[in-house]
Amino acid sequence: MSRRKLSHNLRNLVKSRARYTCEYCLAIAAYAFHPFPIDHIVPLAKGGNDEPENLAYACQFCNIRKYDKIQDIDPLTGQKTRLFNPRLDSWSDHFVWSKNDTVIVGSSAIGRTTISSLDMNRTEAINLRRALRDFGVHPPDL
To answer: Which end of the chain has the least Cβ crowding within 10 Å, N or C?
Structure first.
């Protein structure tokens, strides 16, 4: 069964609402090597839909790592914890930048779980954040 493609207008709404940054790791689309896909926060396979409230702009890496997950294990407590939901949660309630603005630190169970599950602090991401910080465009404004 083929799935309908999201309309151009809906895709543009999701991108502009996110200010052209990944809604999970805050990667900036203009400096990415790959186009950013639209993520289903609650995957279609788990009952999600194509409504704007269920869509997020995500970098290729966060989108691939998230796949069909809505929860994972908090690395600190070992408890199942839901992942960050950009439509329900405020980024700054669950994440902070390290002192040098290159590492995302979880300030809640949701933040820690999402960072771990999506591998948001992989070496390549930290290196790109460092370069963009030195260039004066990172971290993006929330």
So the answer is: N
Q: Considering just the CA atoms, what is the radius of gyration of the chain in Å?
A: 15
In DSSP terms, which residues pair with 105 in a beta bridge?
96
Asked if residue 56 lies in contact with residue 17, where contact means CB atoms within 8 angstroms, the answer is no
pLDDT digits (tens, 9 = 90+) for 36-46: 999 999 999 99
**3-class DSSP state for residue 85?**
coil
Asked if 32 and 60 count as a contact pair (C-beta separation under 8 A), the reply is yes
C-alpha distances out from residue 75 to 24, 78, 79, 112, 118, Å: 18, 6, 8, 7, 12
Q: Which of 123, 116, 20, 105 is nearest to 131 (CA)?
A: 123
Q: Would you say 141 and 28 are in contact if contact means Cβ atoms under 8 Å apart?
A: no
Tell me the C-alpha distance between 132 and 138, whole Å: 5
Between strands 95-97 and 104-106, the pairing is antiparallel
- Beta carbons within 8 Å of 27's beta carbon, 6+ residues apart: 21, 36, 59, 61, 62, 125, 128
pLDDT at 3: 61
